[in-house]
Write a structure and sequence with these properties.
Number of helices: 10
Shape: globular
Order of helices and strands: HEEHEHEHEHEHEHHHEH
Distance between the termini: 17 Å
Strand content: 5-15%
CATH superfamily: NAD(P)-binding Rossmann-like Domain
Strand order of the largest sheet: 1-8-7-6-5-2-3-4
Number of strands: 8
CATH topology: Rossmann fold
Length: 310
């Protein structure tokens, strides 16, 4: 079980190096703003039947937006759509099965979105996997490596490609948000090296797509990064096997609902303000992480918040 703890500890340490909240990367040759999009927005979120994806979907719905959810599991999609429709109404949320590793599935997802929403303003690439495997790379199976890389890297590329193709043909363009994770800042991720490598590639892919759009003088389609920080999902909590891991979870982690409450208004503000600046939105910044750790050592804040520490 030590490998799960290493995952949690490295997640905690990584966020100590993150800069301040919203960092915009712009080019002087690009327009920085255009006509604002008026809400409600049409939103598509991959991997959105549980965890942070589900929390984001609910928060967009609370804001009055229309949402499409998807997952590899048709059963989870059906039950999630039913639950959300009971809370937010029949004509606000739709869902379909989609395996982001399959080009045909993602093309079908785009067609589904166009059929039900006509266009998509905000596309969030949240689907990801670590194959629930924590071990040295030398011990990883072919199946686990293929699962992680095809989902997190190939799947992301396919989704970005199809989202961009769709948005380039929309008069109002659109915004794509790629979710990062442990390893995205370049720090090592021992015992989940494949996952960390794929998350590092998220940042590179986003920057490359931003450069391609600038080269094509495209101003109304923008690719951003989104960082939810440490979220108290089953995956993270499974790593709480040492006191050090429990410390980082108690001090730095937040429930998915809390993270979504912060991220969604920041995401929505970008199209609402007509911004065309590529932006990195972070929930847990380095300043915030250091502040919470200081408060813990100085005042005992957040001790035993989720887990009992020895």
């Amino acid at each position: 079980m030590q490998e799960n703890s290493n995952y949690t500890i490295n997640m905690g340490i990584a966020y100590l190096n993150y800069p301040v909240v919203v960092k915009a990367q712009t080019s002087s040759s690009s327009a920085l703003s255009r006509e604002p999009m008026l809400p409600p927005f049409n939103v598509l979120i991959t991997g959105s039947t549980k965890g942070i994806g589900y929390a984001l979907a609910k928060e967009f719905l609370k804001a009055g937006d229309n949402v499409i959810i998807c997952s590899r599991s048709a059963e989870r999609v059906q039950s999630t759509v039913q639950s959300l429709r009971e809370e937010f109404g029949e004509q606000r949320v739709w869902g379909t099965k989609c395996d982001v590793r399959e080009g045909k599935d993602v093309k079908d997802l785009v067609a589904f979105a166009q059929e039900n929403l006509k266009y998509v303003d905000i596309w969030i690439n949240n689907a990801g996997s670590n194959a629930y495997s924590y071990k040295p790379l030398a011990e990883a199976s072919d199946e686990d490596l293929i699962e992680v890389v095809t989902t997190n890297t190939l799947g992301l590329m396919i989704c970005c490609r199809e989202a961009m193709k769709m948005m380039l043909n929309q008069p109002r363009g659109g915004h794509i948000f790629n979710i990062d994770g442990a390893g995205s800042d370049g720090r090592p991720t021992p015992r989940f090296a494949a996952y960390g490598a794929t998350k590092r590639s998220v940042v590179h892919l986003t920057k490359s797509l931003q450069a391609e759009l600038r080269m094509q003088d495209v101003q109304n389609v923008v690719v951003h990064n989104l960082s939810p920080g440490m979220v108290t999902t089953d995956l993270l909590m499974s790593g709480a096997t040492t006191n050090q891991a429990k410390f980082f979870i108690n001090v730095l982690a937040e429930p998915a609902e809390v993270v979504a409450e912060y991220l969604v208004p920041n995401i929505r503000s970008i199209p609402a303000n007509g911004s065309t600046k590529p932006t990195y939105i972070r929930f847990l910044t380095g300043v915030k992480a250091y502040s919470q750790i200081f408060s813990r050592f100085a005042f005992g804040a957040r001790r035993n918040r989720y887990l009992l520490e020895d």
